[in-house]
């Protein structure tokens, strides 16, 4: 039971991590908390659903269409909206992303209705069964792809010019500008990457969940907990935090009570913040 | 000096607002004439309020309620409106209560204070219903709900009517049905797991089902609540698997029903599922599972093809109109809501009045049935007792066959036979 729970927790943790990494990247580079991250996961799901209907392509092949598409959408949202509140007081940024979240949910309801949609697929009931344990295949794939994306992101951040630019701008926008880095463009790319990650998470979850306007909210709250737990702005922290929270949630639901799964999560959350106020890996105090 | 003036102005404006609000309220009380039988005074348009979530997690079922109500209003208006009131037409004040009981209160208050409605229809959700019925009682507007919580009629309210079975009856019917299956088909299934979503709906339906099961000689191996908004049913299904249940009684909404069914497939367990209603009855699960939905059994508060409906042409015709218009079968949510509108229309016809209290009195005193839409409720009649509950109603068991839910039990209501050979 314990091993199965840990497996369950790791699998869902991978998805929490993916959503949280996008969120923490955006915060780390430009100091914006994106309250619409869950809704962009929902957009990713709807894109998958629509493309599946129109083009007949399967969910996983669509990964290579939806992820770049979400990147472009993120870029567009940054240039059109977020750009205007960079450097302004926090309240503007909060209101903007909160407003975006409400807009996206209700826009989806207006266009597609509140109904639940399913993307037809055969993988939703498949699982690997061995030694008395079960791992649903869809969740394993989601976990592996999520892990791969986070690993790729780490490479981009640490080994590429653009990644260096992002880290520099995150540390000090003024000095980065003096050094010839274009901060707006750096922000735009970081934001777009964050959105692409959310959209990809949506696609990966679509075999398992209904596609409907509020689906993002199932993941938002946990994603925020993970981001703060891991240290705001720390990608590595968000990843570890995601897996940790997933496991804590699974173990709590088994050993405490199913209803108290969230309780376990928040207890751990408070404990970690108590012992390490900047999160597990947080460095910045600002 | 300016501060004092500002403060005085502030206090004055508060008083002004309070005065206006008070007057507005008082005006509303004096408004509807006491039973105007004078046709010249009769309203041309009578407003009925619709209260259900059209956004949030329960929006999918809320839409079913809306479709039922819209069709009923159309049917009444197409037949000439309320003839006793000069052919007055019905119009609908659609109020989205949202899926959050706290938000529902403010939304409903706004509707009641800005619109003159004669009755309220819905909600079909226990948690929302419980939070808004005090408002309707206070405003003396009769409300007919199709939510199932037992607590709805425990408050001593005079203006609240519940036409649907009580949640606590669902467990009883599920267990009785299992006993019937065991006997008919010699199944010998004894180990049952009861899992339920942890809001008012799930709690109400599952409460007592443990005792009922034990009294029926069944062995309750798992009794577990879970949050309907969970993202992973693995822990729940792992528990079901470890308990080695032969039969599962789940009480779920849409999302969780899907997660539970698919996760059970993934974990390779297939207990006999006797659903607790809601998510197991709505079109979404039919679309989700495709042909694999056939054979799925659930208890329900109402079904479109129960004998009391299929044997009465006018009633059956309404279900057919619904399906033709909206493209899906008349669901457990849509049917009662449709009937409620027709019953309110009947009340206005018979009392020749659009006064909410007169309507309420008619609803409380009348035995509905036969070809009027009170006959929609199995076994073919409806009478609200002194607590507001339709005491003759009972749940039915349905099984998906041919892509639609068919009534299979009890025998008096059944129009199809249970088919156990279709097991996924």
Describe the structure.
The complex is a heterodimer of chains A (286) and B (424). Helices cover 72% and strands 3% of the residues of chain A. In chain A, β1 (127-130) and β2 form a beta hairpin. The relative contact order of chain A is 0.21. Chain A has one domain (2-275). The model of chain A has no long low-confidence stretch (mean pLDDT 88). Chain A has helices at residues 2-30, 37-55, 59-80, 90-112, 137-159, 161-171, 173-178, 183-205, 216-230, 235-255, 261-275, and strands spanning 127-130, 133-136. In chain A, α2 crosses α8 (183-205) and α2 packs across α9 (216-230). A two-stranded antiparallel sheet of chain A has the order 1-2. By secondary structure, chain A is an all-alpha fold. Chain B is built from 14 helices and 14 strands. In chain B, β9, α10 (283-289) and β10 form a beta-alpha-beta unit. Chain B folds into 2 domains: 39-165 and 307-393, Response regulator (Rossmann fold); 168-300 and 397-409, Response regulator (Rossmann fold), CATH 3.40.50.2300. In chain B, the strands form 3 sheets. In chain B, strands 7-6-8-9-10-13-14 form a 7-stranded mixed sheet, with helices on both faces. Chain B has a 5-stranded parallel sheet with strand order 2-1-3-4-5, with helices on both faces. In chain B, α5 packs across α6 and α5 (167-185) runs parallel beside α7. Chain B is globular and about 75 Å long. Chain B is α/β, with parallel strands linked by helices and 424 residues long.
Report the portion of residues of chain B in β strands.
15-25%
Based on CA atoms alone, the radius of gyration of chain A comes out at 19 Å
Shape call of chain B = globular
DSSP strand tally of chain A: 2
State the major sheet of chain A: 2 strands, antiparallel
Number of domains of chain B: 2
SSE diagram, text form:
The complex is a heterodimer of chains A (286) and B (424).
Chain A: H1 2-30, H2 37-55, H3 59-80, H4 90-112, E1 127-130, E2 133-136, H5 137-159, H6 161-171, H7 173-178, H8 183-205, H9 216-230, H10 235-255, H11 261-275
Antiparallel strand pairs in A: 1-2
Chain B: H1 2-30, E1 45-52, H2 59-78, E2 89-96, H3 101-114, E3 117-121, H4 126-139, E4 143-145, E5 160-162, H5 167-185, E6 191-197, H6 200-206, H7 209-215, E7 219-226, H8 234-243, E8 247-251, H9 254-266, E9 272-275, H10 283-289, E10 297-300, H11 307-310, H12 313-326, H13 334-351, H14 356-365, E11 367-369, E12 381-383, E13 396-401, E14 404-409
Parallel strand pairs in B: 1-2, 1-3, 3-4, 4-5, 6-7, 6-8, 8-9, 9-10
Antiparallel strand pairs in B: 10-13, 11-12, 13-14
Helix pairs in contact in B: 2-13, 3-4, 5-6, 5-7, 13-14
């Amino acid at each position: 039971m314990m091993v199965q729970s840990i497996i369950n927790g790791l699998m869902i943790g991978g998805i929490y991590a993916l959503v949280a990494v996008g969120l923490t990247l955006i915060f780390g580079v430009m100091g914006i908390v994106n309250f619409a991250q869950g809704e962009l996961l929902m957009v990713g799901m709807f894109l998958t659903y629509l493309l599946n209907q129109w083009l007949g392509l399967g969910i996983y092949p669509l990964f290579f269409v939806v992820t770049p598409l979400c990147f472009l959408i993120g870029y567009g949202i940054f240039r059109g909206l977020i750009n205007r509140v960079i450097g302004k007081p926090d309240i503007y940024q909060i209101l903007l992303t909160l407003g975006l979240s409400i807009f996206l949910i209700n826009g989806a309801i207006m266009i597609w209705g509140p109904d639940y949609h399913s993307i037809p697929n055969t993988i939703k009931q498949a699982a690997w069964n061995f030694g008395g344990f079960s791992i649903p295949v869809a969740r394993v794939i989601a976990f592996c792809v999520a892990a791969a994306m986070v690993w790729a992101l780490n490479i981009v951040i640490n080994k590429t010019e653009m990644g260096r630019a992002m880290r520099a701008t995150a540390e000090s926008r003024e000095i980065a500008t003096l050094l010839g880095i274009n901060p707006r463009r750096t922000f735009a790319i970081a934001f777009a990457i964050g959105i692409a990650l959310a959209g990809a998470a949506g696609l990966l979850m679509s075999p398992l969940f209904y596609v409907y306007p509020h689906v993002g909210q199932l993941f938002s709250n946990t994603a925020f907990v993970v981001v703060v737990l891991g240290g705001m702005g720390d990608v590595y922290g968000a990843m570890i935090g995601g897996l940790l929270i997933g496991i804590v949630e699974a173990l709590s639901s088994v050993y405490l009570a199913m209803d108290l799964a969230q309780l376990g999560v928040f207890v751990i959350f408070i404990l970690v913040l108590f012992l390490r106020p900047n999160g597990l890996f947080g460095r910045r105090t600002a | 000096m300016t501060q004092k003036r500002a403060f005085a102005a502030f206090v004055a404006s508060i008083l002004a607002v309070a005065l206006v609000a008070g007057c507005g309220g008082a005006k509303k009380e004096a408004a509807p004439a006491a039973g105007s039988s004078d046709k010249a005074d009769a309203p041309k348009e009578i407003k009925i309020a619709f209260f259900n979530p059209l956004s949030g997690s329960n929006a999918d079922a809320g839409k079913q309620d809306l479709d039922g109500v819209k069709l009923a209003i159309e049917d009444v208006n197409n037949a000439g409106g309320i003839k006793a009131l000069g052919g007055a037409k019905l119009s609908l004040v659609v109020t989205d209560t949202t899926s959050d009981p706290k938000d529902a209160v403010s939304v409903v208050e706004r509707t009641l204070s800005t619109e003159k409605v004669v009755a309220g229809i819905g909600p079909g959700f226990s948690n929302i219903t419980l939070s808004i019925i005090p408002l309707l009682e206070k405003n003396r507007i009769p409300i007919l709900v199709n939510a199932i919580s037992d607590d709805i009629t425990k408050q001593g309210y005079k203006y609240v009517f519940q036409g649907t079975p009580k949640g606590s009856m669902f467990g009883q019917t599920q267990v009785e049905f299992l006993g019937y299956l065991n006997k008919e088909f010699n199944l010998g299934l004894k180990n049952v797991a009861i899992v339920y979503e942890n809001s008012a709906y799930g709690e109400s339906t599952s409460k007592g089902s443990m005792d009922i099961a034990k009294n029926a000689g069944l062995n309750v191996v798992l009794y577990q609540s879970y949050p309907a908004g969970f993202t992973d049913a693995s822990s729940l299904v792992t528990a079901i698997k470890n308990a080695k249940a032969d039969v599962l009684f789940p009480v779920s909404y849409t999302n969780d029903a899907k997660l539970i069914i698919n996760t059970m497939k993934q974990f390779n367990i297939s207990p006999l599922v006797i659903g607790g209603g809601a998510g197991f009855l709505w079109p979404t699960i039919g679309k989700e599972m495709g042909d694999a939905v056939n054979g799925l059994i659930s208890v329900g508060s109402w079904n479109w093809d129960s004998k009391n409906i299929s044997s009465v042409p006018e009633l059956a015709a309404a279900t057919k109109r619904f399906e033709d218009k909206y493209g899906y079968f008349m669901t457990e949510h849509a049917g009662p809501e449709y009937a409620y509108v027709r019953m309110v229309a009947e009340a206005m016809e018979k009392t020749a009045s659009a006064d909410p209290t007169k309507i309420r009195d008619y609803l409380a005193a009348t035995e509905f049935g036969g070809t009027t839409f009170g006959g929609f409720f199995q076994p073919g009649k409806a009478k609200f007792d002194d607590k507001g509950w339709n005491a003759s109603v009972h749940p039915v068991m349905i099984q998906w066959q041919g892509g639609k839910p068919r009534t299979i039990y009890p025998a008096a209501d059944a129009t199809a036979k249970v088919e156990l050979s279709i097991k996924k």
